[in-house]
């Protein structure tokens, strides 16, 4: 039984061209310094150019890239402002507190995004309470809210509020590529105004692993020092930089297909099964959040029953399951998922008739 694994877009595997690049790189002698390798240098230069920043630095994970940004922008005991369910506040909470020594002022945004009005309120409050806020963290697309894109114009307004107070803006753009595909714009348009941006090379683009942190030359000099502190000066890294370079060059334009597939899956599920619902306002990119509307089924049970049929999803709390679309998921896989849901639908009715 072949699995359809929709647990995360980090599962998007490398293309044959990326694998070729890895093999070719493995055959040539390695280089010594962390920024010496030709593929690493090319990857850093192309990322900086793609995002319109002065410089870029290659990281093993986006978590480490985010934390390095925090450590450059903040001093221990400082506050950052971040959306309640953002990756930095929620999934990196232990690193944000324990590694970067930064406290988070959490604000629950609109579909995952902090509005300029909310930001102004929390900035006023932090001044009243003598908190030192040194950074605002933005996340585009917002993972937990279902891959939602920041509304146009918000980042600019947030930027002017932050500039006036000398507060840095970091953009966690693990899925910036998806945001750009949705907004039909150049990714650099979504970075403008931020002091730093982290992007994943793995999610959406399908590089085997890796992330980039981008910003000014001075910022990257500091980030490079912090990366070393965190044990992230990985080398020789050519074997991972080479496929990442292919990913960056070839995979951006196909992301719209993932979004179309996600919408197709969501639409089919919502129209066929009255026991679930989907908020189409937040189904913008590649993440489908399915909400359960029946007492006969909770997220843990649905996850288990789907896995028995070879479909892997993630439960979010008791009421939601998350299905993530990426390059390896096409019509065949989506067909399998729909069949599995229909199968469950039938047993739901049978259970219901049996009075259970
Ligand atoms: C996945 C993710 C990260 C972390 O990426 P890793 O490479 O797994 O550390 C950071 N931010 C967001 C929004 C993510 O979705």
UniProtKB/TrEMBL annotation:
The GO biological-process annotations, alphabetized, read as: glycine biosynthetic process; L-threonine catabolic process
Query: Ranges for the Aromatic amino acid beta-eliminating lyase/threonine aldolase domain?
Result: 5-290
Residues with N6-(pyridoxal phosphate)lysine modification:
203
**Which cofactor names does the annotation list?**
pyridoxal 5'-phosphate
For this UniProt entry, the molecular function terms from Gene Ontology, in alphabetical order, are: L-allo-threonine aldolase activity; transaminase activity
The family database entries (InterPro entries) matched by this protein are listed as: ArAA_b-elim_lyase/Thr_aldolase, Low_specificity_L-TA-like, PyrdxlP-dep_Trfase, PyrdxlP-dep_Trfase_major, PyrdxlP-dep_Trfase_small
Q: Which UniProt keywords apply?
A: Aminotransferase, Lyase, Pyridoxal phosphate, Transferase
Specify whether Transferase is a keyword of the entry. Answer: yes
Extract the SUPFAM superfamilies matched here.
PLP-dependent transferases
GO CC annotation terms, alphabetical: cytosol
Q: Describe the subunit structure.
A: Homotetramer.
By sequence similarity, the record places it as follows:
Belongs to the threonine aldolase family.
Protein name, UniProt field: Aminotransferase class I/II-fold pyridoxal phosphate-dependent enzyme
Organism ancestry:
Bacteria, Pseudomonadati, Pseudomonadota, Alphaproteobacteria, Hyphomicrobiales
């Amino acid at each position: 039984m072949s699995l359809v694994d929709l647990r995360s877009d980090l599962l998007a595997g490398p293309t044959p061209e990326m694998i070729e690049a890895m093999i070719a790189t493995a055959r040539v002698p390695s280089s010594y310094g962390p920024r010496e390798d030709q593929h690493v240098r090319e990857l850093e230069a192309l990322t900086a150019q793609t995002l319109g920043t002065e410089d870029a630095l290659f990281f093993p994970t986006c978590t480490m890239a985010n934390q390095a940004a925090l450590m450059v922008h903040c001093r221990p005991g400082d506050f950052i402002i971040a959306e309640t369910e953002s990756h930095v506040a929620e999934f990196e909470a232990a690193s944000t507190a324990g590694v970067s020594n930064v406290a988070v002022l959490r604000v629950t945004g609109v579909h995952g995004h902090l509005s300029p009005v909310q930001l102004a309120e929390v900035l006023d409050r932090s001044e009243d309470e003598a908190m030192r806020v040194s950074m605002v963290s933005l996340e585009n697309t917002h993972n937990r809210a279902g891959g939602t894109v920041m509304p146009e114009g918000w980042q600019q307004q947030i930027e002017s509020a932050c500039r006036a107070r000398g507060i840095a803006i970091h953009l966690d753009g693990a899925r910036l590529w998806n945001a750009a595909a949705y907004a039909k714009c150049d990714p650099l348009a979504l970075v403008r105004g931020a002091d730093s941006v982290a992007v994943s090379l793995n999610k959406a683009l399908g590089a085997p692993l890796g992330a980039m942190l981008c910003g000014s030359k001075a910022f990257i000099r500091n980030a490079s020092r912090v990366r070393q502190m965190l044990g992230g000066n990985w080398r020789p890294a050519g074997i991972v930089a080479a496929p990442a370079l292919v990913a960056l060059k070839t995979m951006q334009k196909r992301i719209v297909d993932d979004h179309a597939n996600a919408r197709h899956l969501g639409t089919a599920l919502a129209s066929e099964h009255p026991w679930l619902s989907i908020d189409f306002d937040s189904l913008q990119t590649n993440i489908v959040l399915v909400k359960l509307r029946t007492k006969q089924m909770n997220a843990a049970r649905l996850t288990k029953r789907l896995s028995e049929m070879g479909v892997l999803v993630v439960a979010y709390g008791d009421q939601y399951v998350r299905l993530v679309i990426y390059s390896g998921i096409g019509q065949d896989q989506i067909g399998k998922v729909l069949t599995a849901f229909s199968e469950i639908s039938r047993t739901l009715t049978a259970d219901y008739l049996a009075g259970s």
